[in-house]
Amino acid sequence: MRRSWLVLLAILMLLGAFSLSLAQTTDEPPDTDAPDQEVGAPVEPGDEEGQEPALPAEDVEEAGEGEEEPAMEAPGDEEISAGDELAGEEVAAEETELEEPGLGTPGGGLVLPRPNQVEVFDVPNDGGAGLGVLWYWDGATSAQTRIYIEVKSSPELLDEYRLTDDEWNRLSRELDALEADLRDILPVRNAARAETVELDIALRKAIADESPEAARLRREYWQKQIVENERMQTRRDKLWDRLQRRTGRSSAGDDRLPLLEKYQAFRYLEAAFAQGEWISTNIANVNPEMIETKADYPDLFGLDPEEADKLYAAVNSLRAVNPAAIGEELFVNAEARYDYQAPNTVSIPLTPGVHYDLRMVVMEGELIQTHDLGGAATRTNYLDRSKLNNLIFAAVFAALILSAIAIARRNPKMFIRRISGLEAVDEAIGRATEMGKPVLYLCGLDPLSTLPTIAAVNILGRVARRIADYDSDLLVPCRDPVVLTVAQEVVKEGYIDAGRPDAYREDNIFFVTDDQFSYTAATCGIMMREKPAANFFMGYYYAESLLLAETGASTGAIQIAGTDALHQLPFFITTCDYTLIGEELYAASAYLSREPMLLGSLKGQDIGKAMVMLLIILQTLFFIISANWNWLRMLVEPL
Amino acid sequence: MLFFKRQWPVIVAFVVGIVMWARYYIPTDESQTLQDEFTRWARILVGFAAILGILSLLHHHVSKIRLKKPGFGFSYITLAAFIVMGLAGLLPISWRWLGFAGMQIHGEGPWNWMFNNMFVPMQATMFSVLAFFIASAAFRAFRARSMEATSLLLAACIMMIGRVPIGKWIADSVTFFNTPEAASWLLNIPNAAAQRGILLGVLLSQIAIAVRIIFGIERTYMGGGD
Amino acid sequence: MDFVSFVLNLDRRVIYTIVALCVVVPLVKPLSLPIDTTPEVEGIYDVIEQLPAGSHVLVAGDFDPASKPELFPMLEAVLAHCFEKDIHPHLLTLWPAGPGLMQRAIENQAAIYNKQSGTDYCFLGFRYGSAAVVLGMTGSVTETFTTDFYGTPTATMPIYEDVHRVADFDYIIDLAAGATVEIWIAYGAEPQGVPMGASCTAVSAAGYYPYLQAGQITGLAGGMLGTAEYEVLLSRNYPDIQGDKSRPRPTGEATKGMDAQSAVHVFIVLSIIVANVCFYLSVRREREERRKA
Amino acid sequence: MTPGELIGIWIAAGLTLMMFSFIYRDNVFFKFGEHLYLGVSVGYYINIQYWQVIVPDLYRPVTIDHNYWVIIPAILGIFILLRLVPSLAWLSRMSFALYIGGFAGLAIPNVIHSIFLRQLSETLRPFAGGWGEALLTMVLFILFFALLAYAVSGGGWIAAVGTLVMFGVICLGIWLNWMVAIDINQVIILLGVFTVLIFFFFSLEHKRLVGGISRVGLFFIMVSFGASFGYTVMARISLLIGRFQFLIDDWIKRAMLGQ
Q1: What is the pLDDT of residues D16-48, one digit of tens each?
Q2: Cβ contact (<8 Å) for B47 and D49?
Q3: Alpha-carbon distances, residue C180 vs A9, C45, C173, D225 (angstroms)
């Protein structure tokens, strides 16, 4: 009985794991594993925002007379972000028909490749929204081919980024306050900055000429640079910090952009929409050969997806170029008013809960072709599915611990293996009786609130009972007054259990001092004087372990230690006759005290260990059966 | 009242624990903010817990003096040293008249001077004394009593020779006695394996303790009393 | 009294004297045995060596004066290496007894390399809460450490323009006298995907090999030996401070101590062997005597 | 050298020697040093507390940033201090419950993610090479460890000879490149982790096979403890060297001889 439920649970776990991993191989993948690095990490961290928009613009001009102006705002960025997880169902899996073939083939038989069997679906990102696109190429790509994925603009889309009246008021109020406060600061700083440049040149010249002016110039330079420029800059930064703090999040809560950025995103998008119907995304100017396939994203599509070679790209932000005249309302003359420079391009994350229509632009040299991909709606993600294996493990393990404790409450006779150190205890006490010498027992140096000390006190109860049986003396010097009181109780109880309450002497369990080294010195003194036949060191020890164990060994006592202080264990093992190593101490204490909490969680941990061992065995077996069967490891891969 | 003394803390631990646990799986900004705010509070709380340690130590020494316990004379030294060191860092006074350039905890003030010339040497010396005891224990107590102790001492000796320059020197002179290689293998293979086994066990027990705390089974943190 | 009982009853004071001599003699008259570097330490050195100038390295000095001989020279060497390569170190400590030592190390090195606080480096100081501090820093460094050690607000420092949270650092190195390496791995480096190296006291070095094995730390410098190896690597590649021939790099404190270390280790190993042989002989003799009786 | 430095070195040296006097036995100088150290350290910590916690986390947010939220944790912090007042000690439980409960919740997923799963997946790393070699290596090593386990759990001399023969076969195998593509160390690590887990497994009696496996696990643990023993010796001696470096270089050479 006692072992059967353990085995049962282990089998259940295994089945769960099995079904989970089988699920990975199907097309709807509630899956668990992929290395963390892939999540949202740019494949090529190359260009960032703020790169001159001129470059892609040139591209477009070179591209000549395409049917539609493609990628007007393409910022020339080569980020491919992998989406995180595939949401349960595919929102729109339209298989798009091929359009008319592209322009002619001036390059001599060159035909642009076109996407085929396209699927667009929602990929909830870590803290954001994203759309995934899957397709096959119809035709060959080359190293010169570039693709862009673009989003169709619509009034509704723009509305997602529009400030509400309340937000608008808040932002403009704060910006006004900022402007007012900066009015005193900016002119001084700007003047100082300008002068610093001149002063710097003059100072260098003066130093080179060894002119006597140098000292004065250096003072002036210091005055301008440190006192005026830097101090003013600091004040300016603080005011900006205040603005960011006060206008941090928008009120709605559904939106991840701080107000200022939201406003800016709105302005940029508005301008972009005014220029063309389509707007660029993070998939821009990408060489199709750099695009990865379904097989590269086991976290999304399982380990062995159908159509594993289907190409995959994730769209998670819009790119908009600085409209030359951003200038309405708040941002007129922004640099002078707020010391704010609008960035050249901004990357605007997709908003959850919005329908986006996508198209793909394929470009090679002069040739350009566009294809509608269909669309899908993004959704907010409230569960990070990449952490699912973590969640399952944590929940199952917690349930195991709690139920094991509940079972232990009803049935405290749960099986725990004999701890061989405990037999050595009886032997040592027997020898002490033979020699007519006392036994020394230490409960460690930690207070009673820690587990090792509780374990030590539990074992003390057992030792006391045996000692009462054999009629020897038990000395317990304590470091903590609370431990002292409890130890006295426990020992007294042991003597009463053994039917020898008369033999109990309270003076033998005593408080020494709470100072670490004084305690050690005093205890060593006791060992030298009383020459106990057996020494027990249970509980937690620090650097003094060596002193205690060495002194004990030199008096010829049998020594038994038990601690989970890993650094002190080697010393105990070499100087003591028997040592309870680490968790054995807890097991011994649970074995003796039968306390449900200790017993139950020991059992729960045992099941955890059994699971780990089972995984090791299975993995090895599977590897030997078939060298490619590696899914057990994927199961525990942290994401 | 008893509710607030006994049940309320358990409920608080449960709610906060579950929220902090669950938020890990929720990838929204609000959940991140929740964690940031909690850690901010936690930092302040731990700061006060540290003050608690300081106060109870002082309390201990004051009461030792008041009750004239054995060795109470030394407690005067502790208190005097505390007052001098504490004031040296807190008082906004220039110590130039004593020849110190800095004040409070900045620069070369008396606080810094006391830290470097009293705190550092004493703390460093306390543990260095153990080197002597290890050497004496090597003679008197480190015995190959059992198979386990024998293998432990063997590994230890290989480590001790293999991890100092003289091991390299010996290996260069006597080809067969390559302790640096052996020590490196011991550390990287059997040691790593055993440590990983121990680590997995320890982690499971850490998680078990955390679960017990959240579900109110483990209440040692509450201290004694009703 | 024969040799066996002489060894087994050797007076402590004799042993203490031998130990003291084993330490003092090599310190006064160094042998300068060459120190071999191991892949463990190179794992830290190479990562910092390959970082481009202007990178940001988080240096956590989580130790107190009790571990000063082992970790303080390591801290100085790491800072010197960073400054040598124009990398920005961000120094902090999770141990309340740490700031005094950190202050000494960073001020010394900054003076040698003529670096400015706030632009070239930042000494964040100390906050209570270990894991809470690390978790806080994954959200925002400047909100966790609103001021640096000297009380300057960090938000205004130029060095924090492109570094906001733990994920923005290029490398983390923890110099730990306690269990802080686990905290940095569990809450900082691993979830944020930042490579990390660990330097620790020799006491805990053996326990970090599983992390090294699994690639969770790129390198491990254990105790005085690891520190000495780092110093050797540094002075081999940068024999002069900032390439200035008139300022040769001084020999590191840990390197100087390794001869004494060798001597004491040999003595301890010999005494374990000799004492165990004598113990075995005496046990056998006792047994024989008992059989005779 | 300034007089401040000189006095400092003499005081530091004196205190060092005072602490060293503990080698002889617990005496009045050591006690004096110990209590002085205690006082100085408390004085040190109170300053760190003030300058690194109270000022940046409480004083500045309230007075400069006008962020009054921090007052709540501050009140909870004051509750912690009430642990010293027996009648109000129960208030401190609120703060501890908040802190310890919250951290228990934070620890579970983070520890599982960053350490437990990472270590486990590293252990389950597939072997390099083909399955035939893997099978051979595994069989050889399992046989070897089984024989070793049998030998150490009282299998007598036959088991001991068998172990040695098996060891010979493995050596031969390595020499003849039977297991060329297999990382033998990886096999050893796998077996080590497994046997150590068996050693700390309390639901099975340590008899026969399980007993033997756990003995092998114990050997792995002992080797690991041996390594940490050697390292601990190094640590303690390093500290001693550090102190002697100070005494020789700073005290004798600089302060006394003025070099």
Answers
A1: 998 888 888 778 888 888 889 888 988 888 888
A2: yes
A3: 35, 20, 11, 21
Contact flag C207-A241 (C-beta cutoff 8 Å): no
From C166's Cα to the closest Cα of chain D, the distance in A is 15
Question: Taking CA atoms, what residue in A is nearest to B201?
Answer: A609
Query: pLDDT tens-digit profile of A140-175?
Result: 777 788 888 888 877 777 777 787 787 788 788 888
Q: Are A457 and A443 in contact (CB under 8 A)?
A: yes
Q: B 146-205 residues with CB below 8 A of D? A: 147-149, 151-160, 163-164, 183, 186-201, 203-204
DSSP D25-81: -S-HHHHHHHHHHHHHHHHHHHHHHIIIIIIIIIIHHHHTS--GGGHHHHHHHHHHH
Residue A274 is predicted with a pLDDT of 77
Name the more confident of A556 and A322: A556
- Give chain C's domain count: 2
CA-based nearest residue in chain A for residue B218: A597
Q: Report the residue count for chain A.
A: 639
Q: Is D189's Cβ below 8 Å from some Cβ in B?
A: yes
Q: Do B131 and C264 touch (CB under 8 A)?
A: yes
Q: How far is A402 from chain B (nearest CA, A)?
A: 8
Torsion of CA D70, D73, D76, D82, to 10 degrees: -70
Q: Structure pTM?
A: 0.77
Q: How many domains does chain D have?
A: 2
| D249 closest CA partner among A431, A83, B82, C250 | C250
Chain A environment of C193 (Cβ under 8 Å) = 36-37
Q: What is the CATH number of the domain that holds C98?
A: 3.40.50
Q: What is the pLDDT of residues C104-134, one digit of tens each?
A: 899 999 999 999 888 899 999 888 888 889 9
Chain segment A295-349, per-residue pLDDT in tens: 777 666 766 677 778 888 888 888 887 766 544 555 667 777 777 777 777 778 7
Across chain A, what does the average pLDDT equal? 74
pLDDT digits (tens, 9 = 90+) for B42-86: 888 888 888 888 888 888 888 888 888 777 888 898 899 999 888
How far is the alpha carbon of D160 from chain C, nearest alpha carbon, in Å?
Answer: 23
Angle of CA points D148, D152, D153, to nearest 5°: 115
Residues C262 and C154 in one domain: no
Distant-in-sequence, close-in-space partners of D233: CB < 8 Å, separation ≥ 6: B134, B156, B160, C265, C268
Q: Which domain holds residue C80?
A: 39-251
| Minimum CA–CA partner of A570 in chain C | C203
**Chain C contact for D52, CB < 8 A?**
yes
Residue A33: pLDDT band (50, 70, 90) is very low
Q: Chains with 3 or more CB pairs closer than 8 angstroms to C?
A: A, B, D
Nearest C-alpha of chain D: how many angstroms from A44?
A: 26
Q: Helices marked H in A411-478 — which ranges?
A: 420-435, 451-470
Residue-range definition of the domain harbouring residue D164: 127-232
User: What mean pLDDT is predicted for residues A257-266?
Assistant: 77
- B52/B56 Cα distance (integer angstroms): 6
Residues of A in contact with D221 (CB under 8 A): 581
Count, residues in chain D = 259
Residue D132 lies in a domain: yes
Nearest C-alpha in B relative to D12: B117
User: Could you tell me if residue D254 is inside a domain?
Assistant: no
**Same-domain status, C149 and C191:** yes
Partner residue opposite A517 with nearest CB, options D34, D124, D193:
D34
User: Do the chains contact at C204 and A234, CB–CB below 8 Å?
Assistant: no
Amino acid at A513: T
ipTM, two decimals = 0.86
The CATH architecture assigned to A420-593 reads 3-Layer(aba) Sandwich (3.40)
Does B157 contact C212 at a Cβ distance shorter than 8 Å?
Answer: no
Residue with tokens 């997880």: A85
Q: What is the pLDDT of residue D179?
A: 58
